Amino acid sequence: MTSLLETAEHVFDKATRVSAGDSQWSGHTSEDYWAFIGPFGGITAATMLRAVIEHSQREGDPLSLTVNYCAPIAAGPFDLDVRLIKANRSTQHWSVELTQSGETAAFATAVFAVRRPSWSHRPVARPEATPFEDTKRYPKSGLKMTWIHQYDFRFVEGQPLFGVAAQGEFGSPFSKLWIGDTVPRRLDALSLVSMSDAFFARIFHIRNELVPFGTVSLTTYFHADAEDLIAEDARQVLATADGNVFHKSYGDQVGALWSPNGRLLATTQQIAYFKA
Known about the structure:
alpha+beta; Porin; 6 helices; 12 strands
């Protein structure tokens, strides 16, 4: 007998649901993935990517996605203008523009391709880590942003020390942690792009406090297609994140997401605004 858990729509899929229209697609923000003043950037990226994946002209799987966040997205409905910009024998190039009341709030470019068998080499090895099941859950009771409660964070190294570190003492921007959906969900391209923005802001780790923050531009590179992800059959990623510079209100972040079996699934980088 199939359980209710198996048949119910996952909160992630509900939050990223899109509807096709005559000339535009549409979506709706989710209270379950709210950040400081708008939706969690990862859920916005996943929603825009879903619009391409579900498009009738789409071929292949995502190679890369870049999302630029132009303005706060208000709670409620939004429109998605999805366009195939150029297609050739190897790749498809797409654009997605998210608007509310006729104003652009975010826009994305995506590259898709059909991956064919070829010579392969993976020189980078997955970092060592305690197994997911043996790593302590990160407590989130004091954090009000709802999106954080949709993920199960388990820090192997670099857990943020909010209110614990000595004043004026800077922490490390590096983190190694397991990330999975609080209600387990098999990894796919949508969850990978959302998780690529699910790291706590590097500035939070550096300063050991929450400060006003927002992603400006996020790029994710995919190193596995749908067939690969089905074969991995994973519910969590081992993720690493680091930062290089925090200067004049902006800082960077670089990250990598690995399957429990040791396969590099995605790499990511972003530039973000902070006020501190």
